[in-house]
Amino acid sequence: MSKRPVICILGPTGAGKTAAALGLAEVFGVRVINFDSRQVYEDFPIITAQPSPEEQAVCPHELYGFLPTSEAITAAAFVRMAEERIDAAAGDELPVLVGGTGMYLQSLTSGLAPIPDIPAEIRERIRGRAELEGGPALYAELEKVDPEYCKRTHPNNRQRNARALEVYEATGKTFTWWHNREVPPSPYEFLKIGIGIELAELTPLLGLRIEKMLEAGAVDEARSAWEKCPDERAPGWSGIGCSELLSFIRGGADMEETVRAWAGNTRAYAKRQLTWFKREKDINWFAPDEHRAAVDFVRRWLADCSRAG
Alpha-carbon distance 203 to 197, whole Å? Predict the structure, then answer.
């Protein structure tokens, strides 16, 4: 049986990935599936630049705005949900993954280590320790058992350090050991479409986008989210824009400082995304306004897939 074709539209924040997906929807029957780790949060549709209601009305959109601010999502959980949405697409629908979280996409396209489910008691205990002791304390413990994984994480990354320790305690094997296991081949054939733009050109566009978010009600959105989840350590508040606006509404910064920090952190994030994606050799890059060229490229690729199948 031939593999199911799946399109991945990726690139830095603000590059125009949603517009590219809607360009495909003008020609193909498309089901858009989010792979942005911030756009999963239900309380922040404006601040995380989720597709507007009008955009989502063009074709089905999945995995946007469903997660409470208080909850975290792992790459493994994302892969399970994304695969469910891909498999649920009708036979004539083209699954189109859209986002900028490279780790999520890599986990889906390359497969995940076959780590068994972690008992809730172990997970809750170690994550409770992470809250009380902080990421550096867990990192120091992790260095003793899995120094190789410590090269890929950071002392302040509380969630990843806790995850590695809970896996070690539950299974007796390190995160590195599990990630070196063979993973089954994917049932999907992926085509990666990159929306390419230089950082110097993108930077002013990011500033304009922040202005539009503020005009659209980003501050009120943050205030409403804080009323629902008044915990600054909650996973949803860690996102860029969310954390800066939280400082503003709690009196820690004025609006000028808030916008400056928001813009600077957004630019730094876009730079990291560009660095991540440039390491990948199988991305087909198009400029933000090259929708027709991208459509033609996808059409030829699907025809090749059909012949190969």
Answer: 10
Amino acid at 22: L
Domains and CATH numbers, the chain: 4-112+184-308 (3.40.50.300), 120-179 (1.10.20.140)
How does pLDDT run across 14-70, given as a tens digit for each residue?
999 999 999 999 999 999 999 999 999 999 999 999 999 999 999 999 999 999 999
Encoded tokens for 27: 């020609």
Residues 257 and 230 sit within 8 Å (Cβ to Cβ): no
The pTM assigned to this predicted structure is 0.84
Question: Are the CB atoms for 241 and 49 separated by under 8 Å?
Answer: no
Do 48 and 38 form a contact (C-beta atoms < 8 A)?
A: yes
The number of CA neighbours under 13 Å toward the Cβ of 297 is 18
Chain centroid offset of residue 190 CA: 17
**Residue 171: Cβ-neighbour burial (10 angstroms; 0-12, 13-18, 19+):** middle
